[in-house]
Amino acid sequence: MDLPDIISLAGKRGLVTGIANEHSIAWGCAKALRGLGAELAVTYLNERAKPHVEPLARELGAPLLLPLDLRAEGQLEAVFERIAQDWGRLDFALHSIAFAPLEDLHGRVTDVSKAGFLLAMEISCWSFIRMAKLAEPLMKEGGTLFCMTYYGSMQVVEHYNMMGPVKAALESATRYMAAELGPKGIRVHAISPGPLKTRAASGIAEFDELLARAQEKAPTQSLVSITDVGRATAFLATDAARLITGDTIYIDGGYHIID
């Protein structure tokens, strides 16, 4: 098979969660996945978010636009039931959702509340595990699962606070699920972009200073964009990356390698 044929998602179908607006990492990924020929199902958080996501879903030509609030019991299951009903299969799924209560996120890890920590773990980590469980029977011929992480999982990043331990758990879950699902041809990736401006990042204190330091520190002397993240993620969904699994993939201009 020629390389151009391998680096294609024509005929593939995938789920993209976490698009909030045109600045979302998930939007950069959705555009790249669609650009390689994939058909997409897209989710939106709630009715207030829908007017921001619906035009983007139309731009993608997405036949499925579904509500997904991970705090709402049964909504994730309903998304997969609809995909099973309409498509009967799934080739890839992107989990690009994270949450932590601001009062806990802005405080020390030592001081985090039990309720805040458990909620952050449920939305940011456990829901990816649950997504993998629901996707598994639909990936009859293999597939790819993606989640989004950050290098604050392995280094102490000022103001990242409790999300560091949460993302560390997410990366560990990625490795275990890659080992468990690999025999079925299902690959699992944790994508770790460098700092970039998204609505989710706005909850991190002094984020503009973090961006400036990242640009200065990265070997490429440049900040990552959602387009950069999307292109790398889309490549990993293709057959050209069929033997890559279980890793945290850094898309950050080398930012993570500099002490």
Helix content: 40-55%
Give the DSSP E fraction (strand runs of 2 or more residues).
Answer: 5-15%
Radius of gyration: 17 Å
* Tally of helical segments: 9
Structural class: alpha/beta
How far apart lie the N and C ends? 42 Å
Number of strands: 7
User: Largest sheet, if any?
Assistant: 7 strands, parallel
Please tell me what the overall shape is: globular
Strand order of the largest sheet: 3-2-1-4-5-6-7
Order of helices and strands: HEHEHEHEHHEHEHHE
Tell me, rounded to a whole number, the average pLDDT.
92
pLDDT < 50 stretches: none
In short:
The chain has 259 residues and is of the alpha/beta class. The protein is built from nine helices and seven strands, in the order αβαβαβαβααβαβααβ.
List the SSEs and their pairings.
Blueprint: H1 3-6, E1 13-16, H2 25-35, E2 39-44, H3 50-60, E3 64-67, H4 75-86, E4 92-95, H5 102-105, H6 114-135, E5 143-148, H7 163-181, E6 186-193, H8 207-217, H9 226-237, E7 248-251
Parallel strand pairs: 1-2, 1-4, 2-3, 4-5, 5-6, 6-7
Helix pairs in contact: 2-9, 6-7
Describe the protein.
- By secondary structure, this protein is an alpha/beta fold.
- Helix content is 41%, strand content 14%.
- It has a 7-stranded parallel beta sheet, with helices on both faces.
- Helix 2 packs across helix 9 and helix 6 packs parallel to helix 7.
- The model has no long low-confidence stretch (mean pLDDT 92).
